[in-house]
Amino acid sequence: MGQACLRGRRRFAFSASIGATIMRIGTTRDQLLLEMEAARDRVDEAIAGLSEEQIARPDLDGWSVKDHLTHLTLWHELRFFEISRIARGGRAGFPVTDEAGVEHINEQFAANRRPLPLPQVLTDLDFAREMIRQAVANCPEDRLDQRFFEELGPNGAGHETSHADMIAAWRKREGI
After folding, report:
1. Structural domains of the chain, with CATH
2. Which of 13, 22, 87, 157 meets the CB 3.0–4.6 Å disulfide criterion with 39?
């Protein structure tokens, strides 16, 4: 089922990823989109070939791979609204919060979304990524500057990469 995550992915013409290194190219927008694509590819590689049972096992500090995917979806959904707010000239609306507050949000949404079937989880993640891609594509270039964002960055690439690395490390430990 993990292979399903690789279906029908959009490929940007300006891809220039080299392993884990991303070449800087073009505008801030181009760079953000490139980073998003590279991060998405890292997550796809991390989950490729996993069975539905493996994806559902809560072996990563109490979370399953599926929980990690729904977690990424949640933060992309929040990021979409943050980018949209900033694009309209507003201030970041997602408060910088303490670790306990973020942990509470993470645990609550992981529990709420745990019953979702894997195909929906994958579709929701794809949709949330596309929302971010469109928000970045339509945001005025000058509003994509990191200084406008507080807790949430403008593309979530680092967050996706971090979770991809956790999943890859788990696979290595488990011999999967």
Report:
1. 2-174 (1.20.120.450)
2. 157
